[in-house]
Design goal:
The protein is of the alpha+beta class and 136 residues long. The chain has one domain. 36% of the residues lie in helices and 11% in strands. Strand 1 (88-90) and strand 2 form a beta hairpin.
């Protein structure tokens, strides 16, 4: 009987108490990033596409979650918790080689101290800082 209890306990851990399978989230790859950008180019303005692309590559190269950079609803925006223009800094305005994003809160920051995430430049379409990234 103890063996059966362990099996049931393991199944509950895997499926959750309600018997649901936990939703698996797949990682974003550079190929998926390019597909997202191609989709955004076709549905909106250049400004909107550029902003979405900048957020996507910054999250990707900063190993961040989307919810660390964007707010799901404008009514929920709180400048003490969420990203503002002052939260982002670059080493150069003309040709930045790195950007620093100051996160006020994060899922991986249980004490709410905040953290700075530095994203270094890279050559190519998926570089978070390059002009090429934003114009190609």
């Amino acid at each position: 009987m103890p063996r059966l209890k362990r099996i049931i306990k393991g199944q509950r851990r895997i499926r959750g108490q309600q018997g649901k399978v936990p939703r698996q989230k797949r990682p974003i790859t550079p190929a998926i990033l390019r597909q997202m950008r191609a989709y955004w180019v076709g549905i909106g303005s250049d400004y909107k596409c550029t902003m979405l692309w900048a957020i996507a590559v910054t999250c990707f190269f900063g190993f961040m979650r989307a919810e660390e950079l964007v707010v799901s609803n404008a009514k929920n925006f709180d400048p003490k918790k969420h990203l503002t223009f002052d939260s982002v800094a670059a080493d150069s305005r003309a040709e930045p080689t790195l950007i620093q994003v100051s996160l006020h809160t994060s899922k991986t920051d249980p004490y709410g101290r905040g953290m700075n995430v530095v994203v270094w430049g890279e050559q190519g379409m998926t570089c978070a800082q390059s002009r090429q990234c934003l114009t190609n």
